[in-house]
Specification:
Layout lengths: L1 H37 L1 E3 L22 E12 L13 E12 L2 E8 L5 E10 L2 E3 L6 E10 L19 E13 L3 E12 L10 E12 L4 E10 L12 E8 L3 E8 L6 H6 L11 E11 L3
Antiparallel strand pairs: 1-6, 2-3, 2-14, 3-4, 4-5, 5-7, 7-8, 8-9, 9-10, 10-11, 11-12, 12-13, 13-14
């Protein structure tokens, strides 16, 4: 009986020592996880907008944010005084982008060019971060669809007009990095598919690589550039590759962009596959982009 009592006493002592140690170990694990989260910081404000000028940027909306966007493009400036250097003409796109999650945005828009409706999904695969989890770049995936809304959408009357033939698609991977407080750069391999093309020589799939950047000039102004290199365009024309140059102006609640571009289209299918102007001939259009963000939910 004495032996049994001694065993029970020893077991009680061991349990009394083990339980606090177990709780302490769990608390240590939780503290280490919290410390890791606190020392890992996601890099933000690489761009002030979710688009560079034409193309998507590596920037994402905050969760629950609704971005109302107006993209406006005037006519070509080489039309002279009679057309007020293009100001008498205009095309535009109205869009709404909503962040379902910090890493997931859904968007839709409607352009006057070809009366085109477009929609996209944008997902952050990896975010650039500093601290305990150091990630040097951001990886963003974007997929979109476009619908040509013209009554006569094709220049090929022998082909019947159907809904499926009005469709176009695009997929792109954005690889971007913010270098300090002033400079951000990104690279965007892109695939555009069109269900109907102008003729049999033109490929349905168009491959392109986008180059975008932002250089901060002051606390509220930054210089932007947005270029798309078309790999297999037919006919090839280096001078008509989409190139846009402009400035970001932050006005508190709004992000206002002023830019010049040789592309009239304002979605990926349009500015990559449609015929663009030649910068060296003055086929340039002045335009502006306006973004207003509303916080819909937390």
């Amino acid at each position: 009986m004495k032996t049994e009592a001694m065993h029970k006493a020893m077991l009680t002592v061991l349990l009394g020592c083990w339980i606090p140690l177990g709780i302490l170990a769990q608390e240590t694990d939780l503290l280490s996880l919290l410390e890791e989260e606190e020392t890992t910081e996601l890099v933000t404000h690489a761009f002030k907008s979710t688009r560079v000028i034409n193309g998507h940027s590596m920037e994402m909306l905050g969760s629950g944010a609704l971005d109302f966007r107006i993209l406006h493009r005037f006519g070509k400036i080489n039309q002279g005084v009679y057309q007020m250097f293009g100001l008498d003409q205009a095309s535009m796109r109205l869009g709404l982008d909503y962040a379902v999650l910090p890493s997931l945005t859904l968007g839709a828009g409607r352009s006057t060019a070809k009366k085109e409706i477009d929609g996209f999904i944008k997902y952050r695969l990896i975010g650039q971060s500093t601290g305990k989890r150091n990630m040097p770049v951001s990886l963003i995936w974007v997929s979109g669809v476009t619908v040509n809304g013209l009554k006569e959408p094709f220049d090929r009357p022998e082909i019947p007009v159907t809904f499926l033939r009005r469709l176009g698609y695009y997929h792109e991977l954005i690889i971007g990095r913010k270098f300090g407080e002033r400079l951000s750069l990104q690279l965007s391999p892109t695939l555009v598919h069109r269900n109907i093309v102008d003729n049999e020589l033109v490929p349905n799939e168009l491959f392109a690589v986008g180059f975008g950047g932002r250089f901060k000039l002051s606390s509220r102004v930054a210089f932007l550039w947005d270029y798309g290199y078309l790999i297999n365009r037919v006919p090839p024309d280096l001078y008509s590759h989409p190139l846009s140059l402009g400035f970001d102006i932050e006005t508190g609640g709004h992000v206002f962009q002023l830019h010049f571009s040789n592309a009239a289209g304002m979605n990926e299918r349009a500015y990559l596959s449609d015929r663009n102007g030649n910068w060296f001939r003055g086929d340039i259009q002045f335009g502006f982009n306006l973004s207003r963000i509303f916080q819909i939910s937390e």
